Amino acid sequence: MSEEQSLNFIEEIVEADLAAGKYQSIVTRFPPEPNGYLHIGHAKSICLNFGLAQKYGGKTNLRFDDTNPVTEETEYVESIKNDVKWLGFNWAEELYASNYFDQIHGFAVRLIEMGLAYVDDSSSDEIAAQKGTPTQAGTANAYRSRTIAENLEFFEDMRLGKYADGEKVLRAKIDLASNNMHMRDPIIYRIKHAHHHRTGNKWCIYPMYDFAHGQSDAIENITHSVCTLEFIPHRELYNWFIEKLSIFPSKQYEFARLNMTYTVMSKRKLLQLVQENHVTGWDDPRMSTISGMRRRGYPAAAIREFCDRIGIAKRDNLIDISLLEFCVREDLNKTAVRRMVVFDPLKVIITNYTGEGEILHSENNPEDPNGGVREVPFSKEIFVERDDFMEEPSKKYFRLAPGQMVRLKSAYIIKCDDFVKDANGNVTELHCSYIPESKSGSDTSGINVKGTLHWVSALHAIAAEVRLYDRLFNVEDVANAEGDFKDYINKESLTVVPHAYAEPALLKDSMGVGFQFLRKGYFCADKESTPTKLVFNRTVGLKDTWAKEVKKGA
RNA sequence: UGCCUGAUAGUAUAAUGGUAGUACGACUGUUUUUGGUGCAGUUUGUCUUGGUUCGAAUCCAGGUCGGGCAACCA
Predict the structure, then answer these.
(1) What's the DSSP call for residue A74?
(2) Which of A98, A116, A190, A464 could form a disulfide with A111 if both were Cys (CB 3.0 to 4.6 A apart)?
(3) pLDDT digits (tens, 9 = 90+) for A81-139
(4) Contact in structure between A303 and A293 (CB atoms under 8 Å)
(5) Which helix (H) or strand (E) holds A446?
């Protein structure tokens, strides 16, 4: 293999570290806070962290960053585990920052003993004011010069629950004049009399992110701690604690988080969509969550492929959602079984068809020679799509029109002889004649037609509900659009087709697979689908050059 | 106003002092019993001004523009 694959900048760092013998093998981690469901942005991080370990023969921990008991819940923990697994990754260990609360508390005591932390009685407003501004140094208060003994005692009293929330905090004593605001005596422990989803009521003080994340990394011997760009200013602090505490020197590296067009990618906003019922839940198929995409029918492999294609870099980006859709189609084209479903039926009577009906066969997947065929019943009366007929066709319209011929997929060529209108002028019925010798597979008619239509036998059709999804927002860059992001919600993001006509094979199909409804797009059975009421989600449409053509003409 | 970051086709991402390439998008053509797929092709780019060098996307200096930083969130 002479194929040279270019590395992203983190892979370069890893390779350099390995080549220099800095580590024998690498350890990464994926560290979500269990305060919401995972979204496609997390998928990028998951693929990066797990991918690194896979590629370089290391391991990846799943670590829940659960240091804020008031926002975190077990429901989220379960959903996160489920999503990571579904994406196809196995973690070495399932860990929690809360596992380390004793050790982290010990680190805090050590810092106090070294004279590098102090208990501050100031209010949150006072602390903010004393921090100064980016251009003005902060000022020390009287608490900063408390003795080690005092600090030890007060911190212990904090732990014992002698104070109310907000009465006291523990701060690292670093540099109130630092250019980096995070170094101006950051708070490292706060009092929260709250129930924790894992440690219950054992603790009433909890470490802040900055005093838990790096410490957890060190405890787990994480070699490469990868996070997003907004943590760059935290790195100095991260390193300071590692140095002062003399713990394992994990290194933090930052990459640009994923932004995607026509969607939101923040847990806060996603939570809002759920709570205010703009969507039906975290797994609403329109959501950018992993669970939403799974329900919508996006294959895990397609999401992985997408994450691979967008790359890892440090500049801000806004990825076109059509790239994700491309990856979904690429995957589904190879795997989805083809079925025929008519959404907006128009009855066709095949006037010269005298038989009782017959069973025809159609390939499950033309891309897969081993995919086999299924049985498709044919009869004198069928349904085709309403927009597959035009009374006065344009020149490039290759479908049904008076006198025009088309092939019915896997069946016969038919010719439109006549049509029937109701009192309102709506076409209600087509009368066609078929060419008996044009039967699919044994066509001796010699006739070539330009159009092929999907269809279902009226006698054998089964009912199905079909849900069509469009983008949830109608502006590209939702996060940077002016005003409230909810003003940009696309009111037409869901269209329900309550009574589509489906071919009967669908009744016997297993529901976990991806379908392609011929000429309609890719679909999957929704979790609400039952044998008596089939419900399908449109995963993504087919590329539609005809629609483009029509648009151009209009 | 300070500090930290970043800037390559429409969107992403390579080229690590030596031919600016790839993918998606867009557009052509071709194949096709899905106006799908496949195949072939076209299109568009190094933020700017100087400097170093035989040679600069890459190194240096200044500028411009974008993002981040002053939560008892992560």
Answers:
(1) H
(2) A116
(3) 999 999 999 999 999 999 999 999 999 999 999 999 999 999 999 999 999 999 999 99
(4) yes
(5) none
Residue A452 CA to B64 C1' — how many Å?
A: 56
Q: How far is the CA of A316 from the C1' of B63 (A)?
A: 22
The answer to whether A230 is a known catalytic residue is no
**Rounded-to-integer distance, Cα A114 and Cα A316, Å:** 40
C1’ B21 / CA A536, Å? 42
User: What's the CA gap between A168 and A170, in Å, rounded?
Assistant: 7
- Round to a whole number and report the distance in Å from the CA of A22 to the C1' of B59: 28
DSSP A320: -
What 3-state class would DSSP assign to A376?
Answer: strand
Please confirm, yes or no, whether A548 is among the known catalytic residues: no
3-state secondary structure of A478: helix
Pairing of strands A169-172, A187-191: antiparallel
For residue A241, what are the CA distances in angstroms to A107, A151, A349? Answer: 9, 18, 79
C-alpha separations of A425 from A92, A122, A346, A391, A428 in Å: 67, 79, 14, 11, 9
Q: What is the pLDDT of residue A552?
A: 79
Indicate if ipTM > 0.95: yes
Of the listed A244, A251, A257, A519, which one is catalytic?
Answer: A257
Asked about A33 being catalytic, the answer comes back as: yes
- pLDDT tens figures, A63-81: 999 999 999 999 999 999 9
What six digits make up the tokens of A477? 């860059």
Nucleotides of B under 7 A from a protein CB: 1-8, 10-16, 21, 23-27, 33-38, 66-74
The nt closest to A64 (CA vs C1′) is B74
Q: List the end-to-end C-alpha distance of chain A, in Å, as a whole number.
A: 51
Partnered with residue A348 across adjacent β-strands are A382, A430
Read off the amino acid at residue A216.
S
Indicate the helix (H) or strand (E) that contains A302.
Answer: helix A300-310
> Cβ of A421: how many Cβ atoms within 10 Å?
11
Question: ∠ at Cα A411 (A333, A377), nearest 5°?
Answer: 90
pTM for the whole structure: 0.96
List the single protein residue with the shortest CA to C1' distance from B73. A68
